[in-house]
Input
Amino acid sequence: MKYLYYPGCSLKSTGKAYEESLLTVLKRLDVAVQEIDDWNCCGATSYMAVDEVKAFALAARNLALAEEQGGEEAQVMAPCAACYLVLSKAQHNIAESPEINRRVISALREAQLNYNGHAKVRHPLDILLNDVGLEQLEHHASKPLSGMKVACYYGCQIVRPYATFDDQANPTSMDRILQAMGAEIVDWPLKTHCCGGTMTGTIEDVGLCLNFDLLHEAKKRGATVLATACPLCQFNLECYQTKIAKQHHENVSLPVAYFTQLMGLALGASEQELGLKRLFVPLKASVAA
Amino acid sequence: MSSGPGQPKIGVYICHCGINIAAKVDISAVVEFANTLPNVAVVREYKFMCSDPGQELIQQDIKELGINRVVVASCSPLMHEATFRRATAEGGLNPFYFQMANIREHVSWVTADKAAATAKAKALVAGAVRRVNYHEALERQRVPVNPDVLIVGGGIAGIQAALTLADAGKKVYLVEREPTIGGYMAKFDKTFPTLDCAACILTPKMSAVRSHRNITLWSYSEVAGIDGYVGNFTVKVKRKPRYVIEEDCVGCNQCVEACVFKEGKFSDEFNFGMSKRKPVYMPFPQATPSVVLIDPQTCLHLKTGKCKQACAAACERHAIDFTQQEQIVEVNVGAIILATGFKHFDAARMAQYGYGKYPNVYTSVEVERLVNASGPTGGEVLLKDGRKPKSVAIIHCVGSRDEHTNRYCSRVCCMYSLKLAHLIHERTEAEVFDFYIDMRTPGKGYEEFYDKLLKEGVHFIRGRAAEVTDWAMIPDEEGKLVVRAEDTLIGIVRRIPVDMVVLAVGLEPQADAEEVRRLFNISCSKEGWFLERHPKLAPVSTFTDGIFIAGACQGPKDIPDCVAQAGAAAAEALSLVDRGHVELEPNTAFIVNTQCSGCKTCIALCPFSAIGYNAEKGVAEINEALCKGCGTCVAACPSGAAQQHLFTDEQVYEEIEGVLRYV
Output
């Protein structure tokens, strides 16, 4: 079986390292993926706020393409947290509301597309934990992440409100995956607290405060790296560290890596393959620590 | 009663049920249609057929127009079949010359389109009319009722029902699965809103159960099987071995003291694991019966055979018996009351509150034990490290009013939270913060109790707590549990650091409610609470005659409501068994001898062993007293010789024909 890979805009731009490391990891684990041909914007934020049905139609077009290219039971892999949420939300609303269903399906029909609702939207955390399995992960971890103290950060969108693969209040899938890779998992209670989202660009003070809480608490609890599964979280937490330090008069310097980059290290992949050079706060030092 | 009228003359009565039916079904169109059906002599419509004038229409037509078959199109037979059968009988006809068409629950209440509803109503009327042509006069069988009553569950509801019935002179069997009766109430220290001591009001009732000559108490026992029908149930009760001869044990506890384990080592169920017990133990000081038991999972002798059996040696009455086996006893009863109670919500399911992660997050039921003088701390509210808390948060609605767990309100949590707030403050002088969504205190003296707590200085914060965390943002929060909540009265997010958190867990159906429901053949709500026959007018009856429900197995309720319901269930059971007899529906099977080939297929299939073989005539014979009308033989008979009253082939085929032909 092949997973139909839906990158969304981020994994081709700011989140390039997420794509590079994810595809490397999957390749090393013999998981076959195929990028959806002719995919479009998932319909996140702006669309959703202006016209929900149009946003659902945008999302559904991707699902329809996936069904066309991967069969009725297509498994769509959506690594970006926002894409994952929007695709799931669209699917949910199209299934629940006959009115939305009618409008979306007829819009797709105009484009000679058909969506039957069987495609399954999956997050890589779900695929790695439940399809590949911890046993396989341990087996492939030739260079365990020993000595690395990781605080796993899920953000708000992966497990709320649609994910069924993990607990909404206390998700553990990333913890378990990275533990299988040999990392030491730091107990920290801010796993699903807000990173500020786009707030860092609109009401910067508030956005910085939220990110300060996360970085400060992770460091306080001994984390040497923060692992994320969302391009926006990664961006907020990593790129604003200098500003945050200034605002709070505290050194909050901490590498913020995609969980797939850490996995890749354990699987023996090179820095190049994992896009480690793209990180502003270098990861190397923390691994050695 | 007249019987066997010749040519059918059918009266059809269409009920409006106010606007319940009339708003969706075009009544005059159905009347017009019914007039065209064969053998229909008169069709009438009326606003409420179940009213006296409605019933009189039927009686009048029987007498004056010579109507000899009656069809009423109205509500569900469950509602009014008995009413109209009675009206038919009072008009002078055999009551079984009656058939009902359900055009309310099956039509008007579930159909949006008026034309579709009218068409379906016509079809159902046609089916009933075609069917009633083939009805015949039947007699109800009268069977005597066993006057004894079985009660399942020995919490406060079961105890109350048992005592009420026993005091009325009825023999009662009370079955309790735990080693002692008392249920949840036995674990509480005080009860709201009066703050009277739970043990002081409960234990006299427990010992009254024990000593009542009309009550047989089977603790540590479960119902394993049930057979029969209203008035005549046969019940199998499984008695689990307690390895102690109940009749000989006097509860002196010498065996417990002598046990080779010098200290308690195993999780004590009665204290929710907050204390340790030995393998031989008394569940709690006032346990009823006051008899110890031995846990085979932890007893060295029962597990390994290697123990000097100090307990047995210490017992002067030789009451310890390691050879005890599970026993099945069988009793016959006329009525059954289920009072199987509830289980409390598993707080670990809401990870955001940290139960199981942070040691000082407790459930409310655990705190009930802490404040109880016979509990693990002798009545002191202490943190896990033995300190007294200086600040305590109580979080309401844990597992209630929540989309992810249970949508319903558990009804008792606001009040018991107020009670615990009072007791904790009284015992520790701690500052108490009470996080609530809405304060629900609708009971006698309840609002006044809330008012009292407001004056006692408990801080009430209106807002569902978002999380309990050890994430400290300021030095004052270090080492504390921080409760985060949106205070919806002042519109800000608050962080309250406390030493101890109490989660007010909601009530849920027992884990095995579904199996119990199946065993007793009753219905459940979608949450799993046992379903009453009617939410307002038959709150303790079930859809199975002779089986009643009381207490929290029917839905969350507090002690006064449990006791009231137990009284009601006892009265219903009493009314049934004191009547002395019941009339059974004459829906038994019979054999048409001329068609029976004597193949005996039906004999092996009958679950009630009601069919025998008449060797002389070479045919099967059905014992009507044993037949329960299940229809298995009717379906299985290869030659159509097995038939069933009220469900003969003609009746069923004609009904189908009627439903399908005209629309």
